[in-house]
Amino acid sequence: RSSYSCCYFVLPCCFFDFHGKYSRRQSKKTQYREYLDFVAQVGFVCGFHVEEDCLRIPSTKRVSFIGKTRTYPPTEYALIDKQITQFINDRRTCAVVMCGRGVGFNHKDHCDGVCREAGSERPEQETETAGTAWMPEFQPREKVEQIRNCASLPREFVDDVVLKVANLLLNASPPKSCSDMQSGDRNAWNRGESLSLKEVAEHLNKETLKRLKSEYGGLQTLLKNNHQVFEVLNGRVHIRDWRKEKPSSETKPEVKRRLSAEAFKTRLCWFFIHHPDGCSLPSESCPYAHGTEDLR
């Protein structure tokens, strides 16, 4: 709708309409197929020759639509824009009625079909013409989206939380016997205990939790970002035991193995510096540097 020369590509995923979640209207199709037909319908209403393609990506939702050419000449642009406006308003009316009354609708599958409550008339104030606001209540994202995945938090703050949580897990484990410590048995390396995210949060101060709450995923995201130290499984936090990690040659393709090799020992080993038993791996096997002299 932005211009006559506009082309588009869309990969439908989540089931949403213009004003909320998409409501199913047919039981003979799968929800995915029905939604794909709706997205294609939007393209037809907007005056595009809609082409469908299936992407070669590892996803169950890989059907895409491409609109490269129009079904009408440039001289009819204003007329088509009015039709688009009516289509949007009709769907908005249906969304309100469905939410408020839970009634059925007469619906056509064709590109000229509109969703209307039987016998209802659209309020005159909802009629928009070309040149006015498309959807006055629509709020787009900011041009510069704020990064809120804990990556922009100060390093000192992150390191402090990591150390506190790690010590919490390590201290929850029963102390090793003197014989184990003297024998230097690597199996006696303190792996700590696992705690739920809720239990971990209860041991952090309010100021820390408040700061994490403003980030997407909060505490869980911060711990997952620190993959070297923690493993978060089914809502429980564990100290990562690198002895159990499979070699990259077994789990990664050639390109990723090359990238891993380039990143080998480019960061200091957290366990070598902070863990009371040191690192569970010898220096030559650990992907992280055991001291500054070991850095690449």
TrEMBL record:
GO molecular function, one term: tRNA(Ser) (uridine(44)-2'-O-)-methyltransferase activity
Lineage per the UniProt record: Eukaryota, Metazoa, Chordata, Craniata, Vertebrata
Keywords associated with the record: Cytoplasm, Metal-binding, Methyltransferase, S-adenosyl-L-methionine, Transferase, tRNA processing, Zinc, Zinc-finger
Name of the featured protein: tRNA (uracil-O(2)-)-methyltransferase
InterPro entries: tRNA_uracil_MeTrfase, Znf_CCCH
Localization terms from the record: Cytoplasm
Primary localization class, coarse: cytoplasm
Species in which this protein is naturally found: Sapayoa aenigma (broad-billed sapayoa)
Positions annotated as zinc finger (C3H1-type): 263-293
Record carries keyword Metal-binding: yes
